[in-house]
Write a structure and sequence with these properties.
0% of the residues lie in helices and 54% in strands. With 114 residues, it is mainly beta.
Length: 114
């Protein structure tokens, strides 16, 4: 199907709060022709828009968690030869950690290395 830029290493790569998270898929819509997924993690609404990069080869994942008030952890391990970058938070052993307001809107890009 094409170049793989990112693949979830676990069934639920996004965790909200402490301990195990439970997710439920709520649907998706198209935004300018690109999918925006809506799901809940531990009862908190999460929106994830996936778009191609305008420069270079890769994808941008834009997250909105409007009512977040705690810790959010997101696995951002990229495929071989792909570089991940993020707009907020701190990376610890392949997991992006964001707190409170900084997790309400952030992006993660996965771009093919030169």
């Amino acid at each position: 199907l094409g170049t793989r830029y990112w693949e979830a290493k676990s069934a639920l790569p996004l965790q909200i709060g402490e301990g195990e998270s439970v997710a439920s898929f709520k649907g998706y819509r198209k935004v300018n022709g690109h999918p925006e997924f809506h799901y809940e993690v531990n009862g908190v609404d999460v929106y994830e828009l996936i778009e191609p990069l305008h420069t270079g080869l890769g994808i941008r994942r834009s997250f909105r968690i409007p009512n977040n008030s705690g810790l959010v952890r997101l696995a951002v391990d990229s495929a071989d030869g792909v570089v991940a970058a993020y707009s907020a938070g701190k990376l610890k052993e392949g997991v992006l950690e964001l707190r409170d307001k900084q997790a309400r809107e952030f992006t993660v890009t996965h771009q093919l290395a030169n």
